[in-house]
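Re: weekly structure request thread

Next one in the queue (250 aa):
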Amino acid sequence: MKYVAFLAGVALVAGLAGPAHADKTFGQFLQRTPSARLFQYVKKDSGATKKAELHTTGTATGNSTASIPVYYIFSETGLPVDLDGLQNAHLTVDFISDLGTTGTGNDRMQLFDTVTSGTISILRDTAAAEGSGSRTNLLTVSFSDAQLDASQNSGSFTFQSNVGSVINYSSDFLDLSNFVNEDFSFSFSGASPTFNSVLGSSGRTTRFSGTGTFAAEPVPEVSTWAMMVAGFAAAGVMMRTGRRRLALAA
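Done, posted below.
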């Protein structure tokens, strides 16, 4: 009976607090020319030293890190008119790995470790009208620890945060200070040549196109915490009442 009372109390807490928080996508980007291979993975192994770089190149033939034209989309509602819909922007990414690939069979994973923090920058092409009229930072991300997941000879793969990632978001337009459990995911496609690596080494140099999403879990509002505390208190009362009823029945 005490377990029934406890479960009922938990249900009450859930009812008071509303639906459980989950990671929420607040922004995403897509290339303005989806088929353009403006991302590059570069194999930089040298003997026993393993290294790879994944970055934007600006053009389909460039090798230096440069920004690429993208559309950025806010998933939030109620934004000013000029922040609604597709935002013309430029994206710059630069990710460094000092490790080779691991995996079994055709699966390959390459960790992008903490030696050099990765960076993601999405800047609006023109300043928004809000504020001082000089705001352009749609989203800037710095992070350590992420991973590339691929299959041998595949033209599509992902780059994403993992459980060890430490991520910092900043934006001129969203207050991201009360968000936790940040994560992001990039989807790459059209790789030419396809991804291929010997286990323990980095993959071969290749180019591809990409899209990406950014998410986080909102911290509960103060009122939500208060309702949760009230729910736990109610659960405790129900458990105590159940015990007293059992004692009387005995």
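The longest helix spans residues 222-249. Residues 143 and 166 are 5 Å apart (CA to CA).
Next request, please.
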